[in-house]
Amino acid sequence: MKPLRIFGYCILILFFFYELFPFYWMFNTAFKTRAELRLSPHVTFFPHNPTIENFVVVLRRQVTAFVTPPIMNSIIISLVSTLITLILSVPASYSLARFKIKRSDNISFWILSQRMMPPIALAIPYFIMIGALNLLDTQLALILVYTAFNLPFAVWMLKAYWADFPWVLEEAALTDGCNRLQSFFNVILPLSWGSIATVTFFTFIFSWYEFLFALILTRSRATTITISLASSILETGVEWGWISALSVICTIPTILLSIFLYKRIISGLTLGAIKG
Amino acid sequence: MFTKDRLITSLFLLLSLVLVGHFVYFCIGWNVFVSLSDWKGLAPSYNIVGFDQYLRLFHDPVFLTSLKNNLILILLFVPGTLFLGLFLAILLDLKVRGEGVFRGIYLLPFALSFVVTATLWAWMYNLKIGVINTLLGKTGLEFLKSGWITDPNIALYCVVLALIWQFAGYTMLIFLAGIRSIPESQIRAAEVDGASGFNLYRRVVIPQLKAPALSAFVVLMVFALKAFDFIFVLTDGGPGYRTYVLALMMFRWTFSKNEFAYGAAIATILFLLALVIVVPYLYLSFRREKE
Questions:
Q1: What is the set of domains in chain A, with CATH numbers?
Q2: Cβ–Cβ of A12/B104 closer than 8 Å?
Q3: Could you tell me the pTM of the whole model?
Q4: ipTM reported for the complex, 2 dp
């Protein structure tokens, strides 16, 4: 068993580096000076003169090269669509979980099946619809589309979390004279903040990372951070320092939020996958 | 009071259903409708011509190449990611030190945007100054140097390698959660019966991983069908049409060439392919939940 164990560790460490390397390389590149990046083939494993120059340039370009900085667009679109998703999905999933709704399984089925559909099948209708509403290249267009896309998932996820909720507590609050809204804010919410935070995380990240609809529905005023990243690879071509810096900026919200919600995100990712 | 609360919350549910009904199901129908028309050019045309676009598709070499590439993705990326994930999960289950660190790092790529990972791989695969070629040059493996994603013979495999990199942590997580949900008593009982190491996993653990394997399988299959962002940024379908996939073709034909009806037909085919995978799975899992 001993040699087998050592072998196992070797494999694990090998894949550790495989999975980590590109991520490390992104940081390594982002903090290098332009001159150092041009040094190739003498590749360096740590920046010799670490600099934030790339970040400064990239952030300045966000302001100068676009009508509205794509980062700002992404922040506004992601926050607003996440907020609307929550406002709609919390009562909706509460109603699914709490009241005996006929065919609630079927409803969840239709809701969930949407998440698995190729979004490209919706590209043309969205393009026509947003065009007809005169919303092409506006933040509102993406807010609308992302909300419609996130809503089913949020409802399904919250419903799954609330399936095991100790509803007796709510009954007690109701008998004590609370109305349903009071009991919701005083009893249910304090016990479910973790679930709601996880749903918030997934909906926010979906909007933050979304690419296809942003590509189709925006041009210059409402472009998002992923579009600006993808276009910078085409425009600047060789400026890998800038591209890496923008990649780091794009990744930071996820990493920060993941640290706080790590355990919950993991259980969220495996939700519905293990039962059988 | 009870019924009033129920009414109000149900209204939100109804609103959600209406939104989903419109933005998903109605729009999918709309897309099918467009695919039956002759809409070409910027001005919408809803002249219904039937299945002409579909007939055209099956004589279009780009469509056939894209379809083939999607199939290659399915055949290489899906099993590759599943087996690697299972393998890593089993290794991690052997009471490894620093399990949490390994798990966190394996999951890291899955937390990145496809656009970010595609730019990262494009940078590493770069012919002249990419880290892979530079390292090969440094270690005397000069002859292995390659254009990677610009080499027509291996471009698609480079895409697969990068995608496995991104998804392996996810399948590892699903399998590990599946392994951990097997009751300890069953493992003990098997150990008492003399099963150990390899046999324990083959006879006791792996057969119980059907549910997680199936759900990971469906997620990966659907991804292999709908893949767009990653390939759009990494290779843009090139060199030539070597890494074209259906979603990319649909985008190019619709939004660059304005062949709306034709693009809609490609989208419909993608939708139908996804349906074939997703519906039986969801049906099975919801029926199981009811029992």
A1: 68-270 (1.10.3720.10)
A2: no
A3: 0.89
A4: 0.89
